[in-house]
Specification:
The chain is an all-beta fold and about 575 residues long.
Length: about 575
């Protein structure tokens, strides 16, 4: 049975007669046990000779499978036997090391069956992965092939082409990730056939080959080289594709000039080591310049040989699954260029899903102010009033899945967190915070506030008069605050009655004879001066204090005063009282 249109067919033709003693490759450990499916014509002697290096070891196989084999001379096709994994695999075979979800194998010439890990494969055997499934094959000399979803692999016979022994991989449709680490004694070479194009990967100085080969559904071919280099031949033209480069081939045409692969995405979240109390975390990453879309993979291993989820064509910079299993997992994302070439996959990030419970509760958000402030008061100020030195503090928390991010908005615009330290333009503002958790739940709260950097102002006038004066604030060191209320002071030989409340000071000279002051007029015992403190934002003045002192110059007095508004903005001022020497008019 063939897969549908998106299937991947790989035919591996093995040969290495020049290797001599290394004709059997690979190293899987002598204590492990694998599985072998009996083919027509097989005997225990044949199987023992292939995997135990001697046909005389057939009794060891019989003893290992005593519960399923009654007569060692009679084994049947399709029987699945336990076989000790050899230290070196035969050169015309492979080991199925990883199986994820729905994977089948075909022990030629038998039919397709459900596959399992540690399956021993021979020439002409096949492996098939279904949707959202994957598998990994290991060959010799630290060479592996990772098959993503909807792929088919066939292991071919040995062959020699142009007097050069090669291991040939034919990609008919789909994608294959090939990696190999060459040893100093290795002479193996590889060909990857992509329709009319052929790639010949070569190791770099570090002996490593990492390539991705793909035949898109629309035809043609694509080759991406992450480590090492590769010659790519099509339509009689050969070019070299170096590390970090890729090339595309249109059917019947020469390869396109090598194109630089996009870099790996950065700032991935969840980060390494994240423990998430939700099966629906939101995965996010930073935009890669030049990317048209992104591919995201979630796997049970760093190599992604055991696939859990694979999503292609993502145009946004985030993605949320329907539900992930409770398990230790890895994830990575790859930027895809407009030409369809994959960039470098991000480094696999390990994380853990702790629960199957769906998190539907959004994060908790708290917005507070640290510094001069006045909380909203019913009927007075409906918004927070804040002053210079104020900072806005934001706390976001989520006990179930953890906070993914929070974004501040000031007056409807996204701002950096540094904007929360102020100062701001005087007047009304709104701070809003939008927070999201790793399960994709979002919440936004808003808090209105007024920034008031201005201290109170003073005006003065004469009781019974109509003219008002404005007093500019001025610094005054060593101010001796006097509590508000009524008191009588004798200063400069004159008794003065002073009275104050929260916003006003009244000063009256207590004398039988009226006193005339320059620029103020004449005051009798029932007349006086008043000072009014006002604030444009706070409703009322918080404190108002004063001090009346006699100047060293005879007949000169000074009234000092100080006012604070509800958030501590302070104004100080003074008003001279100079007695006139002229006669009363």
């Amino acid at each position: 049975m063939l897969l549908r249109k998106a299937a991947l067919v790989l035919v591996l033709l093995w040969s290495s007669p020049l290797v001599g003693a290394q004709d059997k490759v690979g190293d899987s450990g002598s204590e492990e046990v694998g599985w072998y499916v009996v083919r027509p014509g097989d005997t225990l002697r044949d199987i023992a000779d292939r995997y135990l290096d001697s046909d005389k070891s057939w009794e060891e196989l019989w003893e290992l499978n005593s519960t399923t084999i009654e007569d060692p001379n009679q084994i049947s096709p399709e029987q699945r036997l336990r076989v000790p994994l050899p230290k070196t695999l035969p050169a015309d075979g492979a080991l199925l090391t990883k199986v994820s979800r729905e994977v089948q194998d075909q022990p030629s010439p038998l039919a397709w069956n459900d596959a399992q890990e540690n399956e021993l494969l021979r020439a002409r055997d096949g492996v098939k992965t279904m949707k959202s499934s994957s598998a990994e094959l290991r060959f010799g000399d630290e060479t592996s092939l990772v098959l993503t979803e909807q792929s088919i692999v066939f292991i071919g016979e040995r062959s020699r082409r142009l007097e050069i022994d090669r291991q040939e991989i034919e990609v008919v449709v789909g994608q294959a990730d090939f990696s190999s680490k060459r040893t100093s004694a290795s002479t193996e070479q590889f060909e990857i056939v992509l329709g009319d194009a052929t790639a010949t990967p070569q190791a770099g100085r570090d002996g490593v080959i990492v390539t991705r080969a793909r035949r898109p559904e629309k035809g043609g071919a694509q080759l991406m080289v992450y480590s090492g280099k590769s010659d790519l031949e099509a339509a009689g033209t050969t070019l070299e594709v170096g590390t970090g480069m890729g090339s595309s081939v249109v059917a019947g045409q020469a390869p396109s000039p090598p194109e630089k692969l996009l870099p790996a995405a950065e700032n991935l979240s969840p980060a390494t080591g994240a423990k998430l109390a939700t099966p629906q975390p939101t995965f996010t990453w930073q935009s890669v310049a030049g990317a048209e879309s992104y591919a995201l993979e979630i796997c049970r291993d760093p190599e992604c040989g055991v696939l859990v989820e694979r999503v292609l064509g993502l145009e946004e910079l985030s993605w949320q699954p329907a539900a992930l299993p409770v398990a230790s997992l890895h994830w990575r994302v790859t930027a895809v260029s407009p030409s369809g070439l994959d960039g470098y996959p991000s480094e696999p990030i390990a994380f853990e899903i702790l629960t199957e419970a769906i998190d539907k509760t959004p994060p908790e958000i708290q917005i507070s102010f640290s510094g001069p402030q006045q909380a909203p008061r019913s009927g007075l100020n409906e918004a927070w009033i804040v002053g210079p030195g104020m900072e806005i503090d934001v706390t976001a928390s989520d006990e179930e899945s953890g906070v993914e991010s929070w974004i501040p908005h000031l007056d409807g615009k996204v701002v950096e967190t540094s904007a929360l330290k102020g100062p701001w333009e005087r007047g009304a503002h709104t701070i809003a915070v939008e927070a999201s958790d790793r399960a994709g739940n979002r919440k936004t709260i808003e808090v209105p506030f007024i920034f008031d950097p201005d201290p109170p102002t003073f005006t003065w006038g004469v009781e019974g008069g109509s003219e008002l004066g404005r007093i500019e604030a001025e610094p005054l060191e060593g101010f001796a605050a006097v509590q508000r209320g009524q008191r009588v002071l004798r200063i400069g030989g004159v008794d003065w009655e002073l009275d104050s409340d929260r916003a006003q000071i009244r000063v009256r000279p207590q004398t039988r004879k009226p006193i005339r002051f320059a620029d103020l007029g004449t005051f009798g015992s029932e007349e006086g001066l008043w000072i009014l403190a006002q604030d444009g934002v706070c409703t009322g003045i918080d404190t108002l204090t004063y001090e009346l002192v006699a100047n060293s110059e005879r007949g000169r007095y000074v009234l000092h005063f100080e006012a604070k508004d509800c958030i501590g903005n302070t104004s100080r001022g003074s008003l001279p009282l100079v007695r006139s020497k002229g006669k009363k008019k």
